[in-house]
């Protein structure tokens, strides 16, 4: 009888503690939300994509996340690509203005292609068209530096049928691209 009373009292003490811990755990946002990207509402779910070097370069795609949103009222599939510059003074980027005296700084632009079950989806990069000679934002990264690059792809219905995407390097140079 005494053991039964001890068990009942223990359960009465432990049950509320477990309930509170479960409530806290269930109300925490999932770890894949916003990931510290400035200006991104925490309600936007971001999904992972593979990482690796862009073909034939030392620009490394650390991670890429995507979400849905709008840009100037247009439905967009928005990609946040974190890129690291692995060029160095000893291994400078292509078209470096100062061969042998490079800092390893790389200037580049990115865009994307969206794919559905039937292939390529008609989408237009509206991140900042016409703002640079590349037609996309140009970023300069020092050797070893990382940057999260935003790509806004406008489609007639950004949420429909996007099964996959690719991030494409528009251009790269060791100096600002004219």
Summarize this structure as a short list of keywords or feature phrases:
178 residues, Immunoglobulin-like, mainly beta, four-stranded antiparallel beta sheet
Description:
The protein is mainly beta and 178 residues long. The chain folds into two domains: 30 residues; 127 residues, Immunoglobulin-like, CATH 2.60.40. Helix content is 15%, strand content 38%. It contains one helix and ten strands; from the N terminus they run αββββββββββ. The strands form two sheets. Strands 1, 2, 3, 4, 7 and 9 form a six-stranded antiparallel beta sheet that branches. 24% of the residues are buried. About 19% of the residues have low confidence.
Mean pLDDT: 74
Domain tally: 2
State the end-to-end distance. Answer: 87 Å
Class derived from helix and strand content:
mainly beta
Number of alpha- plus pi-helical segments = 1
**Outline type:** flat
Q: Which CATH architecture of the largest domain is right? A: Sandwich
**What proportion of the residues is helical, as a percent range?**
10-25%
Residue ranges: pLDDT <50 for 5 or more in a row? 15-48
Q: Which percent band covers the strand fraction?
A: 35-45%
The count of strands amounts to: 10
Question: What is the CATH topology classification name of the largest domain?
Answer: Immunoglobulin-like
* CATH class value of the largest domain: Mainly Beta
What profile does the largest beta sheet have? 6 strands, antiparallel
Helix-strand string: HEEEEEEEEEE
Radius of gyration (Å) = 24 Å
């Amino acid at each position: 009888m005494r053991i039964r009373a001890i068990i009942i009292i223990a359960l009465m003490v432990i049950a509320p503690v477990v309930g509170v811990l479960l409530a806290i755990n269930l109300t925490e946002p999932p770890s894949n939300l916003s990931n510290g990207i400035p200006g991104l509402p925490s309600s936007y779910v971001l999904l992972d994509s593979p990482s690796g070097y862009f073909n034939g370069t030392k620009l490394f795609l650390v991670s890429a996340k995507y979400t849905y949103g709008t840009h100037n009222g247009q439905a967009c599939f928005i990609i946040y690509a974190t890129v690291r510059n692995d060029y160095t003074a000893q291994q400078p980027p292509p078209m470096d203005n100062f061969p042998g005296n490079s800092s390893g700084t790389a200037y580049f632009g990115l865009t994307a292609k969206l794919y559905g079950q039937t292939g390529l989806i008609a989408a237009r990069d509206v991140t900042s068209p016409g703002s640079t000679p590349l037609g996309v934002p140009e970023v300069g990264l020092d050797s070893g530096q990382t940057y999260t690059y935003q790509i806004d792809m406008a489609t007639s219905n950004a949420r429909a049928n996007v099964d996959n995407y690719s991030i494409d390097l528009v251009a790269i140079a060791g100096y600002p691209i004219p």
